[in-house]
Amino acid sequence: MPVVQCPKCRHLNDLDVQTYSSYEGTYRCMACGTRIKVSLYEGQLMETPKVLDLTSVEGAPLEVNEDFIEAQKCYDAEAYKATIVICRRALETMSDLQQAKGKNLFDKIEDLYSRELISKGTSEIATQVRQFGNYGAHPKDDLLGGITERDAGVILEITQHLLKDVYEIPRKVEKLKKRLQKK
Question: According to DSSP H, which parts of 10-148 are helical?
Fold first, then answer.
């Protein structure tokens, strides 16, 4: 029977050998409820278990963080298509709250770039997330049919980077500028 020690509370979790003999994904600690990433092959740990706490973006509005956290929950549930669609939704929410102009998300991203609220690189990243999200929203053109955990993970990481670029980094830069001006 595979045993996984929770990195947070150190509880030893006995995993059902039939379910978890060869498994890579999320497991919830029976003692403290912490989400843990585990990788097992034939009952043996392949890497050290890692804590997977949900991450919000500092300074982002509640609506944006709700979407981003939901995307992480979809990822943890191995709902990779949903992860990508909700990442796109987080970008649309961010664009709307930044009062971006345009009839669709592509136009809104372009507006944010033209107003220098996002960089060229960030606009290109946002466009990629938008495209993947569009694939998920239009099943007749199901280009997400073969989406993998890795693909969804990359989109999730990119979305986090983009949201930090819009909300977190500018706030940190401002705080640093103010602190340096006081010296």
Answer: 17-20, 62-76, 80-97, 105-114, 120-137
67 closest CA partner among 29, 95, 99: 95
Residues 95-138 have pLDDT tens digits of: 999 999 999 989 999 999 999 988 898 888 888 888 877 776 66
Report the CATH architecture of 62-182.
Answer: Up-down Bundle (1.20)
pTM of the model as a whole: 0.70
Cα–Cα dist 72/28, whole Å: 15
Chain-centroid distance, C-alpha 82: 11
Residue 162, CA distances (Å) to 52, 119, 129, 141 in order: 20, 10, 10, 26
Cα angle 149, 151, 156; round to 5 = 90
Contact 141, 130 (CB under 8 A): no
Amino acid identity, residue 100? A
Residue 131 in tokens: 């495209």
The C-alpha atoms of residue 164 and residue 109 are separated, in whole angstroms, by 16
